[in-house]
Every structure is written in C-alpha cells, then in structure tokens.
Design goal:
The complex is a heterotrimer of chains A (243), B (254) and C (229). With 243 residues, chain A is α+β, with helices and mostly antiparallel strands. Chain A is built from 4 helices and 11 strands, in the order E-E-E-E-E-E-H-E-H-E-E-H-E-E-H. Chain C is flat. Classes of the chains: A alpha+beta (243), B alpha+beta (254), C alpha+beta (229). Strand 11 of chain A pairs antiparallel with strand 10 (219-225) of chain B.
C-alpha cells in the first residue's frame, strides 16, 4: 500500500475528483455467462466482479434439505491476482467466510425460497479485481444475476458503502478512503421499501454522522438500483428484437 | 447444524412480541441478569467470565512477542479468535471454526479495534521487527443466546484485567487500555425490537443488529445479522437502545 | 389500476397494478399493490394479470407433459431427471398400465438409465415429491430421435397459439416432434438434414421467442433450409 496522502479531501473534492455524494463510474451487465442459470458483471471504479447463480437445483446431501423451503448458499471469493499488493492466497479466508455469510443474509430477504422446498440456490461471487467495496458490488451483481436466472424475488438488492474521510461523509469509498478514512459502512437496501438487509460498520461515527451516512447510502443505493434495472432491461429488450 | 424450531414455539414467541412481551417475562429493553468475573484464569495474562442469563463466555488474553504486520510496523498486533466448543451446545460441532464462530470473533475484534481501546502503538519492542501480540481467545461455555454481547463484554473485561507479563522486554507500567467499548444486540421479532435475545428468541428472529459504542455515545462497529430486513426506524431504535444499555453494561466491566 | 402497459418488460419488485386483479404467475401482492417477482412481460386479459417469465427453471405441475431421463432404477420403478430442481418417480405399473409382479418381471426390459421417456406429471405433494405416469397413448419411452433442450419458459412459443407453431414445424419438415413442458423436445424423421433444420429452428424460436411474426419467419427459414417442400 502506498503512503497515506496528507489530505483525502481538497477544496470539497475527493482525490479522484468526485463530490462527496458521487459514485465511481458504474457499469452493470446482465447475462454474461453461458452455463450459469443467471449471471451478471459489475464494474465500479476499479472493481471487476462476476456473479453467477445456479438453481434452484437438487440439494445434495439430502439430509441438508429443508422440507418447506429452498436453501440459499453464497460464496464470495477473491482471485489470487485481484489485489494490488501481495498475491492473495487462494481459498476461503476468515474475511471471505464472514462476507459470504452477510452476503447471503443480504440476499435472503428478497428470494421466494418457499416456492422451492428442498432445493438449493447457489450464488457465486468472484472478485476478479478489487478496488474497495467488493462485498457491496458483489451483492449488487448477485441480485442482478438472480433476476437474470428467473429466480422469483420480492425486489432487487442494491448495495454500496458510505464512510467518513477527513470528517466528511462520502459515498462509495475508494481504496485510499477505505484504507485511511475514519469510518466505513457497507449497506444493502431493498429499494421498494427502503429496507436494510446488510449493515456493517467500523470506525467512528457520532450519532449525527451516522444518520447522515445512512441517508447518503440510501441515495447511493437508489442510483445503483437504476443501473441494475437498466442492465436487466437492456439484456432482455435486446432479446425482444426491438419490440 | 441448526436448531429445529417447532412452529408452535415460533408462533408463541411471535404472538408475545406483538403484545410487546417476551418468553421470560422481560421488557423489550431489558437484559437478562448480567455478571462478570475477572481474573479467573491465573495462567492467562488477563481473563474474564461473563454471564448474560444462562449464556456463559470465558475470554483469556495472552501476550506474546512476535512480528508486526508489514503495513503497520510501528504497532502491536491484536488477534481475536472464537471457539464454539461442543460442550456449549448440542448444535456445536468439533472442527475448524464455522461461519458463526468467525463472525463472532470478527465482530468482537472490530468493537475493540475500532474504538482504539488498546493503544497498540505502545506495544512495540523493536519497530518493524518485534512487537507484542495481544491474543484474545473467546471460549463459549454455554450457549443460551446473545453470544455477541456476552463475548464482547467478556473480552473487554479480560483486557481491563490484563496484567503486564513478567518479561524484561515489557517496559510499560500497565497494559495500555484506555477505552471501554460495549456491544448491544437488538433482535427484531414480528416487527418489534428487543435487546439481548435469548436462544429461543434468536431461533425465531427476523434479524438482529449489534452496535458497539464508546462512552461518548459514538458508534465504532455495527453488524446486522439474520435473513430479514430492518427499516430505518428499526435502526434508530437499535441505536437508542445501544447507547442507553451500554451505560448499564459498562458498569460490569473491570 | 394498471401501472404498466400490456407486454411491457418488468423486473422483480416493479409495481404492475393496484386493486382487485386476479394474479397469475410471476406476481405477488403486498396490500393493495401487485408487484412482479420476475423479469418478464406483462400479460393482461380482463381482470387477470400475469408476468410471462423470460427465464427460469421448470417446476413440475400436475397434468404437465414432460420428457424425463431415467437416472436410477429401484425395485418398483424408476427415478427420472426432469430438467428441474425435482426428480420424478415412475412406478412400473404407471408405465405399463397394469399390475406388475415384481418377483417375476425384470424391469430393465422396459427402461434403463439414460432412456428418454415422455411422461405426464400425475401428482406433486407439498414437499415437491413428483409422481409420473406414462400409460396413455403416445406416452412412454422415446426410442429414437434427437433431444434438444431449450429454456422451459420458451416452450409455449414452440407449441404456438392453438398448436400453430408445432403443426407448421411438422408440416413443413415432415419430421415428428414431442414437446415436453420442461424444455426438452424430441425430434425424429427419416432425413437427418431435416431433423437438423428443426433443431436450428427450435433454437431460433428460443432466441426470438418474444418477437411478433415469428411463425412466418421460422417457416421461411425452414423452407430455405430444406430446399422447399
């Protein structure tokens, strides 16, 4: 990691030129993989993230099946070459196991799992290149992949991080802000009712900053939601042959 | 392994919640009985046994010399680990830590680390080469719900109990701890928010949110768990409870 | 009150209508409001609304006719893969349409692992255990042909309104088709070139399922492929 910059906000702007409430450039594509039942690709700043959904499919071993509902499984994984510093050792780490758990819990509320007793739905998130905010971008991608796979859902899930740098509340932290900022709070939201399905935080927020940060996260999630919808509409209206 | 919950129990607890009541007769903002016993393990550098209701967690602190992390050469190291040993619950199985043990350790870790409770920069022996490593080991003894708050309480108490090791490289008069972060978990059942869920309540809750706050009311760590959602009002309520209840819990530390 | 137009594309969580509509597939209700649960096209007939999904796995319903593949045998019958999260059970008596004396008959004479079988879904219980039957005319083992798998969401288009697409496909090519609602289609005929032309036509239907004038375009394509009738 490079040296800590002296200031992270200069004349009200962030080091990458953004306003405090601005997202990094965002690109979402639905249906990018052939074999998966549903898939999506998300670029947010330097993040490059793929999500794939398999299922609902038969759940083995049988004793793990739940009689009245499907089981949702999530695996968040970082490619060894995805990070700018030292190669990441392949396989699950404590961090990735925790992220897999909170990702599952962020997605579970929207899926009509009860429509598929005994079955399993697998969500795989692969971080191909990491640039701060991979878990939230992963959730954003996974929810598009699930919709693309035709899995019945109550809503999409939009996700983004907010935080505090040089005392200012900012949206969508970049790598420096993530590393040297004073607080980081990843959030996932169900846009229809503004319900929160992921909330983690570390750092330091006063009660007032906490409220501001949540408000900004909601605005951010709404922007992400628009891009998610557009991605799905784009894929399927292309299929509809310009109808 | 998961506990099987009968629908009778589920409906019973959910119905009570609608009437703003709880299985054990507590108010929604009421903890079970709390106790903390520091210094139980003489062979550890610090220790504490915390009980919330029937839930018991023992935390031991060990100080050892080792290498600093390459990106923080002038700082000591904090390592928090949690074991859900099979003696504590019929659903715990031996083997490597599962996602619940890992989450527990990482949530407790963030509460301590982000509050800067330990002055890690004072735990350097030779910059870049040798520092003190603070091992905080969470040992769950009896699981009857709310492991997060019980473990966080045991951990911060054990750290306040930590004595300087007998070692010529230790130059400080006391273990450098200065803050008192406390974690309060609020569960959502049938739309109602209630602190300190017991195991029965955890087995039916929609979601939970744990907030670690310091004495000044600032938040230093949050973790939402469970497969449901929280509204913004729920989160406000959880914060309000986190601050008022933290004052209460903090009295048991030390 | 409708919030969308007929054949409009919606995504999960999108408001489709408010009020007293009859809900078909792909929708759920939240109070007075009706939302889409899938990516799909809105279809409205009178008070009945549904969202035709553009994607998704097949889930067995009683009465569906599907093509299963035998994956296992047991003492009384066979287990079939249905291109679905759920397998189906076919008892020998429901294949043969008679009582079977298991101590005397060797079931492997009738079906073996790998066989394709045209079956009807007889029953589905609340745990999604699926039982099948194949003792009616035209059902049972499919002995020859080429098996094509397409998205089950596109099968209604392969059949067409009132069977128009499938009768065109059979009429133009002279091939025979057996269409399973689970996305599997068996095609057979004397001329391999014609069979292959049908396979390509099926993939074309899958790709362009939601365009208008599809039957005519597929006919044109087929006629060109097999050099006129």
């Amino acid at each position: 990691m490079e040296e800590k910059p002296e200031k992270l906000i200069v004349n009200g702007k962030r080091l990458d030129g953004r306003e405090p409430g601005e997202l990094r450039p965002l690109k979402i594509q639905a249906g990018v993989l052939k074999r998966a039942d549903g898939s999506a690709y998300v670029e947010l700043g330097g993040n490059k993230i793929l999500a794939a959904v398999y299922g609902p499919r038969e759940f083995h071993p049988r004793h793990l099946q739940q009689p009245t509902t499907a089981t949702l499984r999530c695996r968040y994984n970082m490619a060894p070459f995805s990070v700018s510093d030292e190669r990441k050792r392949p396989g699950p780490s404590r961090r990735s196991i925790e992220i897999s758990k909170v990702t599952r819990e962020a997605l579970e509320p929207v899926v009509f799992l009860e429509q598929y007793p005994r079955a399993v739905i697998d969500v795989f998130i692969e971080v191909l290149q990491a640039d701060a905010g991979t878990r939230t971008a992963g959730i954003t991608a996974a929810s598009v992949a699930m919709a693309d796979g035709g899995i019945p859902m109550r809503d999409l899930v939009a996700s983004v991080a907010v935080g505090k740098v040089d005392g200012t509340i900012v949206l969508d932290l970049n790598k420096y802000e993530d590393q040297y900022g004073e607080a980081d709070m990843p959030i996932a939201m169900l846009p229809r009712k503004k319900e929160i399905s992921l909330m983690q935080m570390d750092g330091n927020f006063t009660p007032e900053e906490f409220r501001q940060a949540i408000e900004l996260a909601i605005l951010g999630c709404e922007k992400i939601y628009e891009a998610q919808r557009e991605a799905l509409e784009k894929k399927y209206s292309a299929n509809l042959g310009g109808e | 392994m998961q506990e099987i919950v009968s629908s009778v129990k589920r409906n019973y607890i959910a119905d009570l919640a609608r009437q703003r009541k709880r299985v054990d007769g507590r108010g929604l903002d009421q903890y079970r009985e709390i106790s903390v016993e520091p210094g139980l393990i003489e062979n550890a550098d610090g220790s504490a046994l915390a009980k919330i209701g029937n839930t018991q967690v023992l935390v031991g602190v060990k100080l050892q010399k080792g290498e600093p992390y390459p990106d923080t050469p002038e700082s000591g190291v904090l390592i928090v680990n949690a074991e859900l040993v099979p003696l504590a619950s019929p659903t715990f199985e031996p083997g490597p830590p599962d996602e619940n043990a890992i989450e527990l350790a990482r949530v407790v870790d963030r509460g301590i680390r982000e509050s800067q409770a330990i002055e890690l920069e004072k735990l350097v022996i030779t910059p870049g080469e040798e520092v003190w490593i603070v091992f905080v080991d969470i040992h769950v003894l009896d699981q009857d719900g709310n492991l997060i708050d019980t473990s966080a309480l045991a951990a911060i108490s054990a750290l306040w109990n930590t004595k300087p090791p007998k070692d010529e490289d230790w130059k400080l008069k006391k273990f450098p701890i200065s803050k008192n972060p406390v974690t309060v978990t609020t569960a959502k059942i049938n739309g109602e928010m209630m602190v300190d869920p017991c195991l029965d309540e955890e087995s039916v809750m929609e979601a939970r949110i744990s907030m670690a706050t310091t004495e000044d009311g600032n938040i230093c760590a949050i973790q939402k768990g469970g497969s449901g959602t929280l509204t913004l009002q729920d989160i406000d309520k959880a914060y309000e409870l986190a601050v008022t209840k933290a004052d209460e819990l903090r009295k048991y530390v030390k | 009150m409708l919030n969308v137009k007929r054949r409009e594309l919606v995504v999960p969580g999108e408001l489709v209508a408010e009020g007293d509509y009859l809900l078909g597939e792909g929708l759920f209700r939240d109070g007075r409001e009706i939302y889409s649960s899938v990516v799909g096209l809105v279809d409205i007939r009178g008070r009945k609304v549904r969202v035709i999904p553009l994607q998704g796995r097949y889930v067995p319903k009683p009465g569906d006719k599907v093509i299963g593949i035998v994956i296992d045998a047991f003492y009384y019958g066979w287990i079939l893969d249905l291109n679905s999260p759920y397998t189906g059970t076919l008892f020998a008596s429901d294949l043969l349409g008679r009582k079977v004396d298991f101590s005397r008959e060797d079931l492997s004479e009738y079906l073996e692992a790998g066989d394709a079988v045209f079956v009807k879904v007889k029953e589905v219980d609340e745990l999604m255990h699926v039982s099948l039957e194949a003792d009616k005319w035209g059902m049972g083992k499919l002995k020859r042909g080429k098996l094509v798998e397409i998205s089950s969401a596109k099968i209604p288009r392969v059949i067409g309104r009132g069977g128009s697409m499938i009768s065109m496909l059979q009429g133009v090519s002279g091939c025979r088709l057996r269409v399973g609602q689970n996305g599997r289609v068996m095609v057979w005929g004397r001329d391999l070139k014609r069979v292959n032309a049908i396979v390509e036509a099926l993939l074309m239907i899958e790709r362009e399922a939601h365009t208008t004038g599809l039957t005519d375009r597929v006919r044109e394509f087929l006629e060109k492929r097999i050099g006129g009738k």
